[in-house]
Amino acid sequence: MPTTQQEITEAIDLAWVRSQFPSLSQTVSGQPAVFLDGPGGTQVPQRVIDAISGYLQRNNANTCGAYATSRNTDAMIAGARAAMADFLGCDPDEIAFGPNMTTLTFAISRAIGRELGPGDEIVLTHLDHDANVSPWRALEERGVTIRMVEIHEEDCTLDMNDLASKITARTKLVAVGYASNAVGTINDVKEIVRLAHRLGAMAYIDAVHYAPHGPIDVRALECDFLVCSTYKFFGPHMGVLYGKREHLQRLQPYKVRANTNAIPNRWEWGTLNHECIAGITACVDYLADLGRHANPSVGSRRVALLAAFQAIRAHEQALLRTLIPGLLAIPGVKLYGISEAKQFNRRCPTLAVRIEGHSPLELATKLGERGFFTWDGNYYALNLTERLGVEKDGGFLRIGLAHYNTEEEVERLLATVRAIVAG
Ligand SMILES: Cc1ncc(COP(=O)(O)O)c(C=O)c1O
Predict the structure, then answer these.
(1) pLDDT digits (tens, 9 = 90+) for 12-25
(2) Are 120 and 170 contacting, i.e. CB atoms less than 8 angstroms apart?
(3) Where does ligand 1 bind, in terms of residues with CB under 6 Å?
(4) What is the best residue among 108, 125, 134, 181 to mutate for testing ligand 1's pocket, by most ligand atoms within 8 Å of CB?
(5) Are the C-beta atoms of 204 and 174 separated by less than 8 Å?
(6) How confident is the model at residue 421, as a pLDDT?
């Protein structure tokens, strides 16, 4: 593990990282663009762009045909499934592709809902994105009861005692985020899965926000389902579902007759976005190469991915050590979520802030004019903005760091926010 800024910079090989992403060299009104909008979707390396256009140039075809481009398409999709299996630590047939996490979650909630009715309960949290709330709330029309888990307002962490008390013998499913896309909190997912399983409930994990920042091991977590979206971790606009083989085989999806009952085919309906799937292997390979740059002795792609996330986490935490104290020193700034450096392992580098006298939209607009791409509003973490009472006042300004951001960008952001606040 690197210990000094110099070693961290070497470990991440930031010059190599930035050279992979063509979009990072853009300017806005003569100012270098600074991409702090990763939580809404990250930039992509050139190899992802090449894989997508290369597929369309050479292999554009439907699947399962008796000719070359169709067979190449089948092989390409199998390769992408293997890449995602390495990324999540499972087997390729436990991976299903879909348009995005929200659509996949509605599909799973419909299938699980077929078995639920009055007396059954689902546990959700106030920290979650609405894509891990509304698909489950939809089951209220079947008589299912929803229980919402509270947060600790002071640091926007989940109230684990409340969570434990809400899981009962009636609970059929606990749906929780791996990390919050608004305030960055990383949840103790392994413990949440344990609490769910203890009373016979399934655990459904939304890893969309966590995936670009940390390693995922579905076997170690023992979760029943885990969903993520490749456009949040340097890939194309696609959703990915992991499901334990036994669930994918047993649950009944709504599907067309031509879909076989084999997994994962029974969970993938119609023609998928093949060109984007082609980009998925490229994005996982990019991350594995990042790991090999950080630690040339790593062997398999899975081990290289773990090395990548070690380097990514060290770099992002170093940036946070500048950004958080710098923001808190600006008059009128309120940061929502964990702020102490010794707790950084419990947060992603995603900051929700409000500044007295300035609406989040005004701040995002002024920053945008100066080349800093941030977000304002609730970013669908609606339960949280309502719970914290900021929904009616424009939500938060969200500053989302990714591993391609630099110390210099953070310093310039701080100087720009200081200037905006000073008027
Ligand atoms: C935490 C989290 N969950 C779910 C989603 C929804 O993902 P998708 O756009 O793939 O449906 C998002 C998107 O921002 C998110 O941040």
Answers:
(1) 999 999 999 999 99
(2) yes
(3) 100-102, 129, 131-132, 177, 181, 206, 208-209, 229, 239
(4) 181
(5) yes
(6) 96
